[in-house]
Amino acid sequence: MSFNLEAIGHTGEERRYHVTQEALERYAAATDDVPGGPVFAIVPVWETIKPASGSVAAEDIWKHVVHYEQDMLLHRPIEAGMTLVSHAAPIALLGRPNGTSLVIKTETRSEDGELVNEQYVTEFFRGVETTTSVGERPPAHGLDANGDEPFAEITYRVAEDQTNRYAEASGDNFAIHLDDAYARAVGLPGRIVHGLCTMAFAGRAVLEAAGVPDPTRVKRLAVRFSAPVFPGEAVTTRVWRVDGGYGFDALNPEGRAMIKDGRAELR
Asked: What's the CATH code, domain 5-266?
Protein backbone atom coordinates (compact mmCIF):
# COMPACT_ATOMS: atom_id res chain seq x y z
CA MET A 1 0.00 0.00 0.00
CA SER A 2 1.45 3.39 -1.01
CA PHE A 3 -0.09 5.43 1.82
CA ASN A 4 -0.39 4.77 5.56
CA LEU A 5 -3.65 6.41 6.62
CA GLU A 6 -3.01 5.64 10.30
CA ALA A 7 -0.22 8.24 10.37
CA ILE A 8 -2.61 11.11 9.52
CA GLY A 9 -2.87 13.46 12.49
CA HIS A 10 0.22 12.20 14.34
CA THR A 11 2.79 14.87 15.25
CA GLY A 12 6.46 14.10 14.74
CA GLU A 13 9.44 14.87 16.95
CA GLU A 14 10.38 18.45 17.79
CA ARG A 15 13.44 19.97 16.12
CA ARG A 16 15.41 22.92 17.49
CA TYR A 17 17.06 25.49 15.24
CA HIS A 18 19.28 28.40 16.26
CA VAL A 19 18.96 31.36 13.88
CA THR A 20 22.21 33.06 12.90
CA GLN A 21 22.77 36.23 10.91
CA GLU A 22 24.91 34.16 8.54
CA ALA A 23 22.01 31.81 7.80
CA LEU A 24 19.65 34.74 7.15
CA GLU A 25 22.14 36.35 4.79
CA ARG A 26 22.92 33.09 2.99
CA TYR A 27 19.23 32.44 2.34
CA ALA A 28 18.72 36.01 1.17
CA ALA A 29 21.63 35.67 -1.26
CA ALA A 30 20.19 32.37 -2.56
CA THR A 31 16.89 34.08 -3.40
CA ASP A 32 18.36 37.42 -4.53
CA ASP A 33 16.59 39.10 -1.61
CA VAL A 34 17.41 41.01 1.56
CA PRO A 35 17.75 39.25 4.93
CA GLY A 36 14.46 38.76 6.74
CA GLY A 37 12.41 37.56 3.77
CA PRO A 38 9.30 35.60 4.79
CA VAL A 39 10.17 32.36 3.01
CA PHE A 40 13.17 31.83 5.32
CA ALA A 41 10.52 30.43 7.68
CA ILE A 42 10.90 27.10 5.84
CA VAL A 43 14.50 26.62 6.98
CA PRO A 44 13.88 25.92 10.71
CA VAL A 45 11.08 23.44 9.89
CA TRP A 46 12.72 21.73 6.92
CA GLU A 47 13.96 18.68 8.82
CA THR A 48 10.48 18.05 10.28
CA ILE A 49 8.72 17.78 6.91
CA LYS A 50 10.30 14.70 5.35
CA PRO A 51 9.69 12.46 8.40
CA ALA A 52 6.05 13.62 8.45
CA SER A 53 5.70 12.86 4.76
CA GLY A 54 7.55 9.57 5.07
CA SER A 55 5.23 8.40 7.83
CA VAL A 56 2.40 8.42 5.25
CA ALA A 57 4.00 7.95 1.82
CA ALA A 58 5.98 4.80 1.04
CA GLU A 59 9.60 5.29 -0.03
CA ASP A 60 9.03 3.70 -3.44
CA ILE A 61 6.74 6.56 -4.56
CA TRP A 62 9.02 9.42 -3.53
CA LYS A 63 10.35 9.78 -7.06
CA HIS A 64 6.85 10.91 -8.06
CA VAL A 65 6.54 13.79 -5.57
CA VAL A 66 6.44 17.50 -6.39
CA HIS A 67 5.66 20.52 -4.23
CA TYR A 68 2.05 21.55 -4.92
CA GLU A 69 1.12 24.32 -2.45
CA GLN A 70 2.69 26.34 0.35
CA ASP A 71 0.89 28.58 2.83
CA MET A 72 2.86 30.49 5.48
CA LEU A 73 1.08 32.20 8.37
CA LEU A 74 3.73 34.41 9.96
CA HIS A 75 2.88 35.61 13.45
CA ARG A 76 6.18 37.36 14.09
CA PRO A 77 9.43 37.85 12.17
CA ILE A 78 12.37 35.49 12.59
CA GLU A 79 15.49 37.24 13.86
CA ALA A 80 19.10 36.31 14.42
CA GLY A 81 19.72 34.93 17.92
CA MET A 82 16.35 33.19 18.23
CA THR A 83 16.16 29.49 19.07
CA LEU A 84 13.12 27.98 17.42
CA VAL A 85 11.28 24.74 18.21
CA SER A 86 9.30 23.16 15.37
CA HIS A 87 7.22 20.08 14.68
CA ALA A 88 5.14 18.77 11.79
CA ALA A 89 2.15 16.50 11.30
CA PRO A 90 0.50 15.05 8.19
CA ILE A 91 -3.09 16.30 8.42
CA ALA A 92 -4.77 15.22 5.16
CA LEU A 93 -4.51 12.79 2.26
CA LEU A 94 -6.58 13.92 -0.73
CA GLY A 95 -7.30 11.99 -3.90
CA ARG A 96 -7.03 14.16 -7.02
CA PRO A 97 -7.15 13.57 -10.78
CA ASN A 98 -3.89 11.88 -11.81
CA GLY A 99 -2.46 11.63 -8.31
CA THR A 100 -2.71 12.24 -4.58
CA SER A 101 -2.03 15.27 -2.36
CA LEU A 102 -0.56 14.99 1.11
CA VAL A 103 -0.99 18.00 3.41
CA ILE A 104 1.50 18.58 6.21
CA LYS A 105 1.11 21.27 8.87
CA THR A 106 4.14 22.67 10.68
CA GLU A 107 4.30 24.83 13.77
CA THR A 108 7.25 26.88 14.97
CA ARG A 109 7.54 28.50 18.40
CA SER A 110 10.19 30.46 20.22
CA GLU A 111 12.01 28.87 23.14
CA ASP A 112 9.57 30.48 25.56
CA GLY A 113 6.53 29.15 23.68
CA GLU A 114 5.49 32.15 21.56
CA LEU A 115 3.94 31.08 18.25
CA VAL A 116 6.22 32.29 15.44
CA ASN A 117 4.61 30.71 12.38
CA GLU A 118 2.36 27.97 11.03
CA GLN A 119 2.77 26.47 7.58
CA TYR A 120 0.76 24.20 5.33
CA VAL A 121 2.91 22.17 2.93
CA THR A 122 1.04 20.26 0.22
CA GLU A 123 2.89 17.58 -1.73
CA PHE A 124 1.53 15.96 -4.89
CA PHE A 125 2.38 12.40 -5.87
CA ARG A 126 2.06 12.31 -9.66
CA GLY A 127 0.25 9.27 -10.99
CA VAL A 128 -0.10 7.66 -7.55
CA GLU A 129 -3.81 7.40 -6.81
CA THR A 130 -5.83 6.75 -3.68
CA THR A 131 -9.51 5.92 -3.31
CA THR A 132 -9.71 7.55 0.12
CA SER A 133 -9.60 11.23 1.09
CA VAL A 134 -9.24 11.96 4.81
CA GLY A 135 -8.24 14.78 7.13
CA GLU A 136 -8.21 18.55 7.43
CA ARG A 137 -7.89 20.58 4.23
CA PRO A 138 -5.56 23.62 4.32
CA PRO A 139 -6.97 27.19 4.31
CA ALA A 140 -8.16 28.51 0.94
CA HIS A 141 -6.21 31.21 -0.91
CA GLY A 142 -7.71 31.31 -4.40
CA LEU A 143 -7.26 34.37 -6.61
CA ASP A 144 -10.33 35.89 -8.26
CA ALA A 145 -9.23 39.03 -10.11
CA ASN A 146 -12.77 39.67 -11.46
CA GLY A 147 -11.34 40.28 -14.90
CA ASP A 148 -9.31 43.28 -13.69
CA GLU A 149 -5.88 44.00 -15.08
CA PRO A 150 -2.99 43.65 -12.60
CA PHE A 151 -1.73 46.95 -11.23
CA ALA A 152 1.88 45.77 -11.48
CA GLU A 153 3.98 43.28 -13.45
CA ILE A 154 7.54 42.67 -12.28
CA THR A 155 10.06 40.36 -13.95
CA TYR A 156 13.09 38.71 -12.37
CA ARG A 157 15.42 36.23 -14.06
CA VAL A 158 16.41 33.00 -12.32
CA ALA A 159 20.17 32.44 -12.47
CA GLU A 160 21.71 29.29 -13.90
CA ASP A 161 23.25 28.49 -10.50
CA GLN A 162 20.13 29.41 -8.49
CA THR A 163 19.24 25.83 -7.56
CA ASN A 164 22.72 25.12 -6.23
CA ARG A 165 22.74 28.27 -4.12
CA TYR A 166 19.24 27.59 -2.86
CA ALA A 167 20.01 23.98 -1.95
CA GLU A 168 23.01 25.04 0.11
CA ALA A 169 21.10 27.77 1.96
CA SER A 170 17.89 25.81 2.57
CA GLY A 171 19.03 22.22 3.07
CA ASP A 172 16.75 21.02 0.24
CA ASN A 173 19.07 18.80 -1.80
CA PHE A 174 16.40 16.82 -3.66
CA ALA A 175 18.04 15.65 -6.89
CA ILE A 176 15.31 16.99 -9.21
CA HIS A 177 16.72 20.46 -8.46
CA LEU A 178 20.39 19.60 -8.90
CA ASP A 179 20.78 16.75 -11.40
CA ASP A 180 19.45 16.99 -14.96
CA ALA A 181 19.79 13.25 -15.57
CA TYR A 182 17.85 12.36 -12.43
CA ALA A 183 15.14 14.91 -13.21
CA ARG A 184 14.71 13.45 -16.71
CA ALA A 185 14.62 9.93 -15.30
CA VAL A 186 11.54 10.82 -13.20
CA GLY A 187 9.73 12.46 -16.11
CA LEU A 188 10.83 16.09 -15.93
CA PRO A 189 12.50 17.95 -18.83
CA GLY A 190 15.52 18.68 -16.63
CA ARG A 191 16.36 20.07 -13.20
CA ILE A 192 13.77 22.49 -11.89
CA VAL A 193 13.95 25.45 -9.52
CA HIS A 194 12.84 24.78 -5.95
CA GLY A 195 9.22 25.85 -5.52
CA LEU A 196 10.07 27.83 -2.41
CA CYS A 197 12.76 29.73 -4.30
CA THR A 198 10.15 30.67 -6.92
CA MET A 199 7.81 31.64 -4.08
CA ALA A 200 10.49 33.91 -2.62
CA PHE A 201 10.95 35.60 -6.01
CA ALA A 202 7.18 36.19 -6.29
CA GLY A 203 6.90 37.45 -2.72
CA ARG A 204 9.71 39.93 -3.36
CA ALA A 205 7.90 41.16 -6.47
CA VAL A 206 4.68 41.70 -4.50
CA LEU A 207 6.51 43.80 -1.91
CA GLU A 208 8.14 45.84 -4.68
CA ALA A 209 4.75 46.40 -6.31
CA ALA A 210 3.23 47.42 -2.97
CA GLY A 211 6.09 49.84 -2.25
CA VAL A 212 6.96 48.00 0.97
CA PRO A 213 10.74 47.72 1.53
CA ASP A 214 10.49 45.78 4.81
CA PRO A 215 9.91 42.02 4.19
CA THR A 216 9.16 41.40 7.88
CA ARG A 217 5.77 43.07 7.33
CA VAL A 218 4.48 39.96 5.53
CA LYS A 219 2.04 38.06 7.74
CA ARG A 220 0.78 35.56 5.17
CA LEU A 221 2.23 34.28 1.91
CA ALA A 222 0.48 31.47 0.03
CA VAL A 223 0.89 29.98 -3.44
CA ARG A 224 -0.02 27.03 -5.67
CA PHE A 225 2.80 25.76 -7.84
CA SER A 226 1.26 25.09 -11.24
CA ALA A 227 4.31 24.41 -13.46
CA PRO A 228 8.06 24.13 -12.97
CA VAL A 229 10.52 26.98 -13.39
CA PHE A 230 13.87 26.18 -15.01
CA PRO A 231 17.29 27.72 -14.32
CA GLY A 232 17.93 30.72 -16.57
CA GLU A 233 14.21 31.41 -17.08
CA ALA A 234 12.56 34.81 -16.54
CA VAL A 235 9.54 34.89 -14.23
CA THR A 236 6.98 37.70 -14.35
CA THR A 237 4.82 38.24 -11.26
CA ARG A 238 1.48 39.96 -11.82
CA VAL A 239 -0.08 41.65 -8.78
CA TRP A 240 -3.68 42.66 -7.96
CA ARG A 241 -5.14 44.46 -4.97
CA VAL A 242 -7.70 42.23 -3.27
CA ASP A 243 -9.65 42.39 -0.04
CA GLY A 244 -7.24 41.93 2.84
CA GLY A 245 -4.05 42.20 0.81
CA TYR A 246 -2.68 41.29 -2.61
CA GLY A 247 -3.32 38.51 -5.08
CA PHE A 248 -0.67 37.40 -7.55
CA ASP A 249 0.45 34.84 -10.06
CA ALA A 250 3.72 34.26 -11.91
CA LEU A 251 4.28 33.51 -15.61
CA ASN A 252 7.14 32.27 -17.76
CA PRO A 253 8.09 34.14 -20.98
CA GLU A 254 5.54 32.11 -22.98
CA GLY A 255 2.75 33.18 -20.62
CA ARG A 256 2.42 29.84 -18.86
CA ALA A 257 1.52 30.14 -15.17
CA MET A 258 4.26 28.94 -12.82
CA ILE A 259 2.37 30.10 -9.72
CA LYS A 260 -1.40 30.43 -9.36
CA ASP A 261 -3.68 31.55 -6.51
CA GLY A 262 -0.99 33.63 -4.82
CA ARG A 263 -2.00 35.63 -1.75
CA ALA A 264 0.01 38.06 0.35
CA GLU A 265 -1.18 39.84 3.50
CA LEU A 266 0.85 42.52 5.28
CA ARG A 267 0.99 43.87 8.80
From this structure: 3.10.129.10
